[in-house]
Design brief:
Layout (H helix, E strand, L loop, with lengths): L2 H25 L3 E7 L5 H12 L5 E7 L4 H7 L5 E5 L8 H10 L7 E5 L16 E7 L6 H4 L1 H5 L3 E5 L11 H11 L4 E4 L8 H11 L8
Parallel strand pairs: 1-4, 1-5, 2-3, 2-4, 5-6, 6-7
Helix pairs in contact: 1-4, 2-8
The chain binds magnesium ion.
Amino acid sequence: MPRVQVVENVMKANDQIAAQNRRFLDEKKVLAVNLMASPGAGKTSFVMRTIETVRDHMRVAAVEGDTASQVDADRVATAGVPVIQINTGGGCRLDANMVRPALEQLPLDEIDLLLIENVGNLVCPAGLALGEHLNVVISSLPEGDDKPYKYPGIFMAVDAVVINKIDLLPYLEFDVAAFRELVAGLNPKARIFEVSCKTGAGLDQWVEWLIGLHPGIKAHG
Ligand code: MG
């Protein structure tokens, strides 16, 4: 079998499992968000801030993807929400088959929002479905404003772009307008949020957007 065919079959199998995951999440009325970013962009801090900002409105759980270790899951667990660590054993992204057992283990009947932190890089995770409703890329100021140029695939595949560490703007050469223009050129429909996980700035707008997209939050017990 030619290699291209093999790759297509693997993608197809993943998409089928992703569709099952998605149906399961829909049944449980859980909004699932796939968070992607480079290492150090602040994914875990963003998960923590999102939990803190949204917790009066939505019950949250998290899945933490990493190549090794469970430091992120340990950190998120301190927020008092259910969290499952998935180690990919060196793999550069989560896939639908890895996420599936996590969905079975989480108490999804009591959850409104599932935050899935993907493995840190801007190449592999792009466009591989997990069963999520929303794809989000976080880009932070220290990485520079040229990331949409260098990694267009991921910026084209998302519903929202989060510009993190906005509090560093006075100290760095990051042209927010130019960055926004690049994103708009690649993906005019993508929402853009400017946030600081250090100060909490901009988190309210992000969380309002999530609440607005939830298909009917379940009655809290
Ligand atoms: Mg992390």
